[in-house]
Amino acid sequence: MADQRRSRFPAGIFTSVMLAGAACLPMAAHGATPAQEVRFVVVTNWENGADSGDEPGEYQNWVEREHLDEKVPVRGVPDVVRRNRAGLYGLVLRHGVTDLAAFVLDPRFDFHHTYWLFTGISGVDPNAASVGSVAWARWVVDGDALREIDDRTIPKDWPYGLYAIGASRPNTLPEAPNHYGSVTDVAELTRAYPLNQGLARWAFALSQRVNLADDPAIALRRKAWTGFDQARKPPFVLMGETLGAERYWHGAPRNRWAQDWVRLWTHGQGKFVMTNEESQTYQREMRTLATLGFVDPDRIMVLRSGSNFSVPPPGVPVTQSMGDEGPGQSLAFDNNERAGEPVIEEILSNWKKYRDNVPS
Predict the structure, then answer these.
(1) In terms of CATH architecture, what is 13-25+36-145+191-354?
(2) Is 3 exposed, middle or buried (0-12, 13-18, 19+ CB in 10 A)?
(3) pLDDT digits (tens, 9 = 90+) for 139-191
(4) Helix, strand, coil percentages in the chain from 3-state DSSP, rounded to 5
(5) What is the dihedral of CA 10, 16, 17, 19, to 10 degrees?
(6) Which of 70, 169, 258, 310 qualifies as a FRET site for 356, CA 20 to 30 Å off?
(7) Helix/strand/coil for 215
(8) Residue 352: CB partners within 8 Å, gap ≥ 6?
(9) Which of 25, 11, 39, 13 minimizes the C-alpha distance to 106?
């Protein structure tokens, strides 16, 4: 989601606890009935009110338009999974990463060939795109674990007081791993989670000509963004990275940090487009589950839509625009589903082709 960001417990903790519980399940749970192969899961972060029939949140358009009519009870989280007759599952993470781990660790389901689409609304960089635009990520970059010095007390040649653990100044990668007692390899300090870029480009190609919605009120608001050509455009589909950070940041100085942070950890190949609070947590969890053999990391996609900008328009105080995602939320919900639908349709309609061969 955008700036309705909610705190999540660290990824990996829930997986470890649930794995212990799964190992203690009665043998009947692992009996002769084979696990059901799950083909596709669309993952959303939250929903206000009911899943259908009222004002939409991140989940409702998927439920209604994809006819996710059947509720699927999952032990411990009975009201987060739905599915339709075509084989699409929907997951709303009402309890954060707990719901994700519970679903994947349920022995009734087989996720070895499952495609995953992590969706949601975000703050969008006005240098990259407009409110209502939708971006396919090639990396999810984690903005949580870092060193911080108050910007008022930093050395004069520093742009800000945020820098990588193990580094000596901003915009440099870690030099040594021993800043965490358990880390022995500097590569373990990485803050970028690479996605399957071939799959991301394939998904982008399918969705880039989708007819996205626009809104007259949002179109009028765009005019305030003088000097930001991309921000003034009607919604469009692009490729660009997602930055997840539980800190709710806003404004031009931190936007510069976000651009630099994404560029740093992707070695100059990634471009900051979307920011939210939970995407990094879910990608950490998915990589834990992949390491344990439950999911295929090459089948994970991330699609984010902009509900508000990460900096205010020219002449507007930063405190006035902080959290101003309300007007753009409905448009972002709408276009998120519009852009993702053709990818889901293509994979499910041609399952024999894509079950064993990931598109690229």
Answers:
(1) 3-Layer(aba) Sandwich (3.40)
(2) buried
(3) 999 999 999 999 999 999 999 999 999 899 999 999 877 666 778 888 888 89
(4) 30, 20, 50
(5) 140
(6) 70
(7) coil
(8) none
(9) 25
What pLDDT score does 291 carry?
97
The neighbour count for residue 318, using CB atoms within 10 Å, is 13
Q: How far apart are CA 147 and CA 161, in angstroms?
A: 8
Q: Which residue in this structure is represented by tokens 């630099």?
A: 260
Can you tell me the distance from the alpha carbon of 34 to that of 318, in angstroms, rounded to the nearest whole number? 55
| Identity of residue 218 | I
Count of residues in the chain:
360
Q: Which residues pair with 192 in a beta bridge?
A: 141
Q: Report how far residue 242's alpha carbon sits from residue 229's, in angstroms, rounded to the nearest whole number.
A: 21
CB 234 within 8 Å of CB 133: no
Separation CA 117–CA 35 (nearest Å): 21
Task: Answer positive or negative: Cα dihedral of 249, 127, 325, 133.
Answer: negative
